[in-house]
Structure formats: C-alpha cells, structure tokens
Amino acid sequence: MMKKTWVSTLMLVFTVVCVFGAANAGDHGKARPTKKGILLVAFGTSISKAQISYKNIERAVRAHFPDVPIRWAYTSEFIRRKLAKQGQSMDSIEKALAKMMDEKFTHVAIQSLHTIAGWEFHDLRKNATLFGQMTGGFDSIRVGNPLLSTDNDFARVVIALLKNIPKSRKKTDAVILMGHGTSHPVNAAYAALMYHFQRKDPYVFVGTVEGSPEIDEIKEMLLVRKVKTAYLMPFMSVAGDHAINDMAGEQDGSWKSILTKAGISCSPVLKGTAEYDEIVEIWVDHLAKAISGLD
Fold first, then answer.
1. Higher pLDDT, 28 or 55
2. Domains identified in the chain, total number
3. Which one is catalytic: 180, 196, 242, 286?
4. Is the pLDDT of residue 282 over 70?
5. Could you tell me if 199 and 91 lie in one domain?
C-alpha cells in the first residue's frame, strides 16, 4: 500500500492556501451562502467488476441525502496512477477537497469507506483538519468513522455477514473472512471481530493478508476441528485484487491453494462487503453523524 509523503501533501495544501486565499481576498467579511457537500473516500480499485461495491455505496448515500452533491477520492496513489494509464482520472483526498473549495462548498462531510481506523484513516483526518483550518476555506468539515468503530458496529457487521453466508453452507463448514491487515495497532480489530463471530458461530474465522491472524494460523484451527470444507469471503469493501488473487487464486500462496493442499475444499465468494446493504448502512450512519456535526 503506497502512501503520499507529507512533503507533497503540505505542498499541495500550501498551493491551495495561496490560490484560494488570493481568490477570496476581496470577499473578506462577506457572508457566503451555505453549500454542503459529501466526499466519499476509499482505498480504491482498478478492477472494473469490483466497482459494483462503490456504486452500491453511492446509491445508498444518494437515497439518504438526495440534495447533497457527492464527490469521490481514492487514497491509493498506486491505484490512481494505474487508472490514469487506463485513461481514468481519480482525485486524491487533497485534490478533491481543493476542487470542492473552488466550487464554493462551505460545509463538507468526508466519509471514510475504510474497514478499520488504520494509517490511511488517520492521514485522512490530519489532512482534513489542515483544510478546515484554512482562512477563507470551509466553514465546517467533519470526517465520518470507518466501518468498525464501536461495539455496535462489530455487532451489526456480525449479523449482516452471517445473514449473507451462502445457503449451501453446512453447520460444520468453515467460513473464512479475508481482511487486509495493517501494521497499525488497530489491526487487533480483526481478532476482536473473530471473537464476536465465534460467539455466534464457532466455525467463522477472520484472517488478514498483511497482518494477523495469518492464514497459517487459521489453517491450524481448521485442522484441529477436522474441517473439510471452507467458504472464503472477502472482508474488504470491494472484491478486488486481493480477493481475486490472494484469496481465490490458483497460484501457490493463495488462501485457496494453502487450504486445498491441507485437504480442505474451498468455495470462494467474490463479493465485497459494500455489496451487502446491511454493511453499507453502517457507513451511511457514520456519514449521517458527520453531516449532523457540520452545523
């Protein structure tokens, strides 16, 4: 996962301050009409089929806030560059906010579409704070929390995903959710989520690609319980590259290959969490709280 350096971020913010400040120098002391906006922020994906998740989120947001304009930003510089080579333009958070300033938005609610409050979420809040401090900029700016932020969020996620497990699954078949994982301390949320799941269903497990629990740990748990069949489901907003290759791929090292070699038959389910309306509603509720805080 690539991150924009603070140097480039501060340079962009400085440029926005200079340009926007100069443009508004003559408006000092004048009241501006209120113009609210929503900025949806995701890691991003270059997999066209995975866009169904983001479309589902936007559909829900438009249904709840029909009169508020929506903008998008991707936090992944790698994804933005990849899309640019394909002829698609996607803004960074900073560029999107600069454009919203230029469009005279006065109140902006930013909704993080991340799963946990890791490094990217904290960078998002820092940069949003900088934009909120600019003289002549936004009158108010708020950031909505990511998916797993409260005990109630954990409970709602468990209920939503248990409801959407394939009906063909038998009681002793395992369900393994693949999260992204992070070096941030909040990675512990994945183990906590597995605890919440197993209180409801002892055969539901949560692992990560780049954190813990790792797939080898999950595999050992399955072997101890003599599990023969496992359903693999992404615990990411989109069923993108990680889900297609790291989870369900045929190559050595994929979760499917590792478990198959251990004698466990795997059935991948390529649906991102944002394809489930019950999950999207959690993000929408966080956004509603951010919008209510604008006033």
1. 55
2. 2
3. 180
4. yes
5. no
Per the CB < 8 A criterion, the answer to whether 282 and 161 are in contact is no
- Does residue 21 have a pLDDT over 60? no
| 64 tagged catalytic | no
- The rounded distance, in Å, linking the Cα atoms of 222 and 259 is 9
Task: Specify if 160 maps to a domain.
Answer: no
**What's the chain's average pLDDT?**
91
Q: What is the CATH number of the domain that holds 186?
A: 3.40.50.1400
User: What single-letter DSSP state applies at residue 104?
Assistant: T
Among all chains, which residue has been given the structure tokens 């960074």? 92
The domain containing residue 54 runs over which residues?
6-21+30-146+277-292
Among the listed residues 51, 25, 57, 39, the one whose alpha carbon sits nearest the alpha carbon of residue 95: 39
* Calpha distance 20→100 (Å, rounded): 11
pLDDT tens sequence across 65-121: 999 999 999 999 999 999 999 999 999 999 999 999 999 999 999 999 999 999 999
Bridge-partner residues for 250, per DSSP? none
**CA–CA gap between residue 37 and residue 191 (Å, rounded):** 35
pLDDT digits (tens, 9 = 90+) for 220-273: 999 999 999 999 999 999 999 999 999 999 999 999 999 999 999 999 999 999
Domain co-membership, 222 together with 98:
no
